[in-house]
Amino acid sequence: MKKAEIIIASVGLLALGVMAYLLATRHKRTDEVLSGRLLYAPQCLTVDARGHLYVANEARRDGGALVAKVSPKGQVSVCADRLPHVSALAADAQGNLYAATGLGEVLKITPDGTAAKALQDIPTGECSLAFDPQGRLHVANSRVNVIYRVAENGAPEPLEIGCFSAGGMAFDRAGNLFIVSKAPGLVLKIEAGGEARIFADVRGATCLALDRLGHLYVGAVDSVGGTVYRLDPSGRAKSVVARKVGRVRSLALSPNGTLYISGDMMGRVRAVHVGTPGLVLP
Fold this sequence. Notes:
Strand content: over 45%
Order of helices and strands: HEEEEEEEEEEEEEEEEEEEEEEEE
Structural class: mainly beta
CATH class: Mainly Beta
CATH superfamily: TolB, C-terminal domain
Radius of gyration: 21 Å
């Protein structure tokens, strides 16, 4: 065999080897469903830094709302019970859980399950919660269309940022705020300096989650029964993560790349393994 032919053959074998490696190591997405007696009517979700999932159920007629805690290994336990209706959850870096109610207050739930008021005297109505990179809690009230930042003394400070029918929000590492404006079906990006612009137009958008590389996951209610999209950091490229997930109410993303979805799914939380952020979905 001539030298040139040997080189070409070697390059071909190398290419085949690389392709085989990529196919063998490519993340395969598999879906799971979480269910059980403590997940009887999932409404809103959040995940803490250690990968624990928190699920707030719809309030029962005879005893209020139950918040369940799901460990990374799938063990389900009671985090808090007999709470008022919970519209949003968020976890801080110390392992405390915050729950927004429709009664104009935010509850702080410590790791031992003790619940106390962390914020009150805000208008009643559905709220969204998010922590910024400095660890400050933000509350978006969809009834009065105001975002509050909670001061060190616990007082709510209204920000000069308009949000129409907020449906979920998240901060990136640079301090930029992403928020769903449900009525027009838009995702807004509010720069750290306070300027707001349209980041993406997602018809029927209801909620969102953000990964560490700036990819945004947006849940939307549509004619095909609910869809979750993934947007790239520019907001232009959009791919489908999950379909037919019901009326998507909340999304939460774990550190290992699992996206949790709650909706009208008969007492279940769907877990979609979306893989390494930045790679094309399998």
